[in-house]
Structure formats: structure tokens, C-alpha cells
Amino acid sequence: MKWKAPSLADQQHYPPRQVFEAGLRHHHIANTAYPINHNWTMKPYRARPKDLETVTVEAWQDIDRMSLYVHIPFCQARCNFCEYTVIDPADNARSEDDYFDLLLQEMEIYDRLLTTRKKILTGFDIGGGTPALSKTENIARVVDKARAMFRWQPGMQISIETTPLIAANEPDKIAALHQMGIDRISMGVQITQLSLAKKLGRQYKGFANLQKAVRHIREAGFKKFNIDLMYGFAGQSVADWRNSVEKSIELEANYITLYRMRYKGTRLQAQANQVTKEIVTQMAAAAGETLHRAGYVAPPGKNTYSRLPNDGGCSDYLTNRVVKGEPYLGLGLGAQSLSHHTLAYNRGAASKQIKPYQKSLQAGQLPIQDLYNMPPAVSMAKMISVSFYFGEINLPHFHQKFGSTLEEQFPVEVDFTLSEGLMEYRGDCLSLTPKGAKAYNGVIALFYAPAVKLHLLQRPANFSKGAGEQGSKGEKYTPAPLPPCSPAPLPARTPAPLRLTPGGNL
Ligand SMILES: C[S@@+](CC[C@H](N)C(=O)[O-])C[C@H]1O[C@@H](n2cnc3c(N)ncnc32)[C@H](O)[C@@H]1O
Ligand code: SF4
Q: Are 143 and 134 in contact (CB under 8 A)?
């Protein structure tokens, strides 16, 4: 299987300073969730519906190490801030068993098409939604099938997500999850202010309930235990946020992950303009200081803090994606899959309806909505964007994946980050400096594919305040058609040609 040839828009070069500033200007969208505006920037790479299966089989045939993500779209209530694929909670009871039947059917199809029994599974996340809301028997069906359909790397860790309410109310279920071999659990606390939680539509019963949830997680035997917190909400002060971090530290999780609120596509999208870059930078700094003082460690730019030595705190699935750009298969409603050359989204991401996903599976077809056959620039941008979860790009892994060095592919951009003091060489990585971590939205944009850079460069300034493709006053932004050739290439920058065909060297 070969790389797709780049579109004309993906053969352009833009001055790094302009791209950096565009990333900062559009900080609500220039982040690790890549690509941006894919209906436009990725359109040239979309596979025809009739080719989905052939392209998928070709893309995965040479891959022998991969991770698995299974999406469970059920929650007790939908939080207003949530960006994930969650179906209407009113449909939960009716849909759960049927949904797991469909997941098993999807696993069967991949088992058959990709001969997964020959592939080594290196990470496995069960995410959502709130997977711990599901019946234990249903989770066990998925875990058992994954065990049967892959060769598991010894010691590979399975991770699952819960809310505090479930962990507090259902200790037997939490224990059963651990007994079936799930050894990492992540619990969303988000914030500890009752009034703000209420405004956000979050079901939160106060601090004593959190303590109960933590007790049950510990008693079940989970040593790898993470708490998620969120900042950047309208109406959340730096003092509120610091207080949420301090209260969470009292819960003594081994890891704490900080999520900056991403507004795009959420019910709170229109509030993005109330939250400035300056305030989120202050919040990130306040949390970092508070966590460091309490013995939690993370390098600049990384959002997961760990208090365990030699343990970064993230799941194997996420770590393999971030550090190595390792392929992953995403199963379930709206799930995303990445091979070396392809990026696919399952049906249901936008509609949040099970029907179309179900229809494909009942016809024995892959439930894929969009499949993109990528050129190298897009695949590199995807790997690097995800790398910024940890605040650094692993250079040997980049080389191994693409057969070319980061400096050969991004000569002007790497020079810019070094000369501006935004990144520095640290061990095997090109890592964010503290200055770079504060300007991370600009730094990450430097490595985006050219069409995505162009999107940021020409996106109107008033959209810097809106989070999606809608302006602060509700106006719509329709990007100009992809340019035939614009602007003139920079003379100094010619990325080195790739020497190896990826897939063969892994
Ligand atoms: C899929 S959720 C699962 C956790 C679980 N359902 C809960 O809410 O407790 C994973 C995490 O994503 C984060 N998250 C949700 N919506 C987000 C958004 N719009 N922007 C950034 N992070 C978000 C939250 O911290 C949440 O805990
Ligand atoms: S944040 Fe968690 S509980 Fe809330 S809707 Fe999203 S996935 Fe469900």
C-alpha cells in the first residue's frame, strides 16, 4: 500500500512565524485534536464508499503491533461541556445489550478481514461515554473477544473510565472490572464546585461522595488510578480552579490529568469567547505549581501528572499513540482508527445515533463513515499533534515510522522552535520548553499539514473568539475553495524525500 499523493494545497509552505501566530490566534481549535475542519482540509483524500473494505484491508495488512479502543456511548446524564460521542441517556436501557451485540459483530468482521490473530495488541482502552455504566457481563464480552482475537503483549494494560457516582454506588461492579483484568481506571472529577458543576449539567454529589468513590476503587485493587480535571470554563476563576486541584490532591489518586475545555462542537460552544488565552495559561500554571508542590510530576506541556516514579500515568493505548504513533483500531459509535496510511471515523460521530452504525453491521459491512487515505504530510501532522499530549516529539520513533528525520521533514519549523526558545532537545525528544508550553497552540500548528495551516491562516480574525466554524456573532464561515497554487513556496524549505515505504520498516 502506498501513500496517497498530496493535494496541491498540501504542497505549499508557509512562513513559520505566521503559522505560529495563527495557531495562537485560533487557540480554541489549534490543539491535539487533528485534523481541523476535515470536510475541507481532508476532502481530497476521502476514499469512495465502495472502496472502504479494500483500502482498510490493504492499510492493515503489514501492521503487526497495534492498540484497541472500544467506545461505549452511554452516560447517566449528558454534561453540557462534553465533546464525546454520547447517545441520548433516555435510550440507554433500550440500547445497551443491542449495542454490545453490534460491537461483537464489528470485532468479528475485523477478526476475519485483518487476521488480527497474527497481530500483537499493545494497548487497550475502553472509553466513552461512561463504560463503567454498562453491565459487567457486557464489558466482559468485549474483553474476552479481544483476548481471543489478538495476541496480547505480556503485561499489556487495559484501562476503563468511570464517573464518581458509579464508583461510589456500585463497589461490586468496580471490583468485578478489576477481577476481569482491567488494571487502570480513570474517574472524571472535572471540578469540585457544586454550583458550577450544576450549571455544567454535571451530576456531582459533593466531596464526601468523591471520597467514597475513591475508597471503592482502592478496595477493588486498582493501583493505576487517574482523576480527570477540567479548566477553562466561563465563570470559573483561577481561585476556583486551584481549589478543585487542591481538593483532588486530597483524594490521593496516583495520576491527575488536566483537560483544558475544548468548546468546538459542544453545547457550550458559544461561551468560548468568554475565556481568554491569558486566563487558561494562568490556570495551567496554577495547577502545575500546586501539583508539583504535592509531589506530582509532569514535563512541560504534558497534562497527566504522576506521583509514581517511572510511571507517566497514561494508559498503554495512549502512550503508544503519543510516543510511537502506533496504529489503533477504534470500535463502536463514532470511533476513530489510524493505520500508518489511513484515518477512519465510524458512523455516528456527528449524529450520535446508533441506527446507521447498526445498519452497516447488519449488512455485514464495516461501519465506517469516512476513510481518508493520507499523504505523508498528513500522517506526520497526525502523529506530531498527538505527541503534544506529552509535550514532546520522540525523534527515533518519528524516524522509524517515516524513514526520515523530523529535521529533514520540518527544517524551517524545527529551527524556528529552537531559535525562539519554544522547544529544546531533551534525551530522545524535541520537547516543549516552559515558554513553548505556554504557546503550545502556536507550536503545534507549525507541524500541521499545509492545507490545515492555510485554514488557520485565512480563518477570519473574529473567528479566533469562536470555537468552531461559527463566529462570535453566530455568522458562518465558509472557507474559500482550495487554492490551485498559493502562496509562493518559501525557497529555503524543501523537505527531504522519504526513503522508506512505511509499514515495511516497523
Ligand atoms: C470520555 S470522558 C470519560 C469520563 C467520564 N464519563 C466522566 O465524565 O467522568 C474523558 C474526559 O474527557 C474530558 N472532557 C470531556 N469533555 C471535554 C471537552 N469538551 N474538552 C476537554 N476535555 C473534555 C473530561 O475530563 C472527561 O473526564
Ligand atoms: S463528560 Fe463523561 S459523563 Fe459527562 S457526558 Fe461526557 S462522557 Fe458522559
A: no
